[in-house]
Fold this protein.
Amino acid sequence: MAVVLTENALNRVRSFSPGAAGLRIGVKRTGCSGLAYVVNHADPVTAGDVVFDQDGVRVVVDQEALQLIDGTVVDFVREGLNEAFRFSNPNAKGECGCGESFTV
C-alpha cells in the first residue's frame, strides 16, 4: 500500500514544510461525488497513521483514508497563476465535473 509523489510534488513539499513531520494526505466527505482530497502538514503523526518515506519526504495517511487512495500518484502543477496538487487515484470510479470530488 502506498501513495507516491512526483518529483514536482516532492519539490513543492520540501519548499513549504521544512519543519513539519511530513505531508498528510487524506479524504473528507464532501462535494458532488462524495469524497475530496485533503492536504495538510502532518503534525503530529498518530498511531493510526501509515507513514511512507519518499526521497526524504514523509507522506502520512491515516489507515481509513489509505483504503480509498492506495496507489494514488500526487503531482503538483502550475497553470498560469494557479497551482495545486493533482491526484491520479486508481480507485476512483468517477469525479465531479469541477474536479473537486471523487467517488470510489
